[in-house]
Amino acid sequence: GLVALAGTLAWRRRSGVIASAAHVDRQVSPVLLPVVRLGKRAGTSARSELSRARTLYGQLPPPRTGEILVVGASRHSGTDVVAQLLYMGAVEHVSVTAMNVVDEFANLSAATVREKLAALPLPTDEGRTVIIDGGSVASAPQMLAVAERASQIVVVVRIGRDVAAEVEVLLHAIQNEDVPITAICTKGRLATSEGTPRRKGSEGGRHS
Q: 83 CB contacts (<8 Å, ≥6 apart)?
């Protein structure tokens, strides 16, 4: 009766929810591992975070320089966490800068974003890397203008939250970009906004 109907409706709402990294691999390949856990984790050391950062960055398609755009299937995917890890992994190898699309280009038209980007030197001309937190199509539509000149794109998908249709929408939006596309999966609960402040315009470089 009503219980069965409620169960059916709940199943339909949940159908399409990404259940594993293997599920993502059907849409985006390769999927870089390990899966990134979101939020504060008891017992997580700086050493393990750095190890995770090195592992993920090392799996990016070479040369791993230029503008690396990190985009989420949804606003809940955890692009900020993934972008921070890639920044940590890159800083030991190249001169690296972090950028956040929402911070830099909020409320600007795509044309204005393109003008501002055109005024910036291409990182590949100087052997630099820029890790860009692009948010999602919903939270930062300006990201699409940034994708037009990205050296590579990392799609972030949150297991148990994002759905396959959201990944398809994102891939359709960036499918004309002739750049490598990889995926990184996240899982768990997002930290509060106070937990991890955004890095805006921060600079890094090789560790000696």
A: 70, 98, 100, 131, 132, 133
Write out pLDDT tens, residues 165-178.
999 999 999 876 68
Are 117 and 170 in contact, with CB atoms under 8 Å apart?
A: no
pTM for this one? 0.82
- Locate 124 and state its tokens: 């590949």
> Up-side HSE of residue 72: CA atoms within 13 Å toward CB?
25
As a whole number, mean pLDDT of residues 111-132 equals: 82
